[in-house]
Amino acid sequence: MRIVDDAEPRKIAAPKPETLMAALLARRGQILTVDQLVAEIWAGPKPQRARSTVHVYVSRLRAILGVPGPARSGPLATSGGGYVLHPGPGRLDADAFHGLVERGRAASRAGRRHEAAETYTSALDLWRGPAYAGVAAGPIVRAHAARLEASRLECLELLVEAHLELGHYRESVARLYALTAEYPLHETFARHLMVALYHCGRRADALAVYRDTRGALRELLGLEPSRPLRDVQHAVLAGLELPGVRTDSLAG
User: Is the pTM of this model over 0.70?
Assistant: First the structure.
């Protein structure tokens, strides 16, 4: 997590004020009470003066943001017995990411697949690592980080799908092998890898991907592969035309 203005990017050096800022970012535009912030900052026993310490941390953050002193307006405002962060439009990488994903979806729906792939790539280029990496996160931040990670994975799915729709099968194989190794239970990545391998004439490798994915699902979750993955396996076995590669989220 970093703050960027006209100068060099800055980080919040102290871990607890950093956690406070992360919680305010995760719930931006919403009031967080002092008690909620105390629970986020201190997972175990709370110090006796925890509530007053939160006020001190808020003052530090206001100084970092360039608005020192008490405030009922500005990016970090006092409101309703708590605090609320209003970063403003276009100020957060996460908002820029979501905006690019939506632009990519619109381009894909309009059949502009090259544009869609380029837009999804631009969205993923905003990521410098896991969301809130290095932050001592509490439940508020952990939940937001999980949502952001789910959005990142969805964007990866859409990017791979756009490349497959463009016929970039060979170029997609290496990326998809890496993704299936990192996410062995992610059936969409496995399905896309099978499609790419099949179109490269590598039927045996495609079936091996199915076996590995089915084995991981059964061993770790006690589940059988979903219908879309089974359909691809059947098509590979029978030498049939493969079913469409569009994801449910995009098709819907």
Answer: yes
| Position 144, amino acid | H
At the second CATH level, the architecture of 15-85 is Orthogonal Bundle (1.10)
Domain boundaries, the chain: 15-85, 92-166, 168-252
Distance (Å) of CA 82 to CA 2, 30, 37, 58: 23, 10, 9, 10
- Token readout for 144 is 């937001």
Total residues belonging to the chain: 252
What CATH number does the domain located at 168-252 have? 1.25.40.10
Give the separation between CA 32 and CA 50, rounded to whole angstroms. 15
Side chain identity, residue 162? A
pLDDT, tens digit (0-9, with 9 covering 90-100), for 150-183? 999 999 999 999 999 999 999 999 999 999 999 9
Q: Which two tokens stand for residue 214?
A: 């089915």
Is the pLDDT at 247 greater than 70? The verdict is no
Q: What is the pLDDT of residues 222-240, one digit of tens each?
A: 999 999 999 999 999 998 8
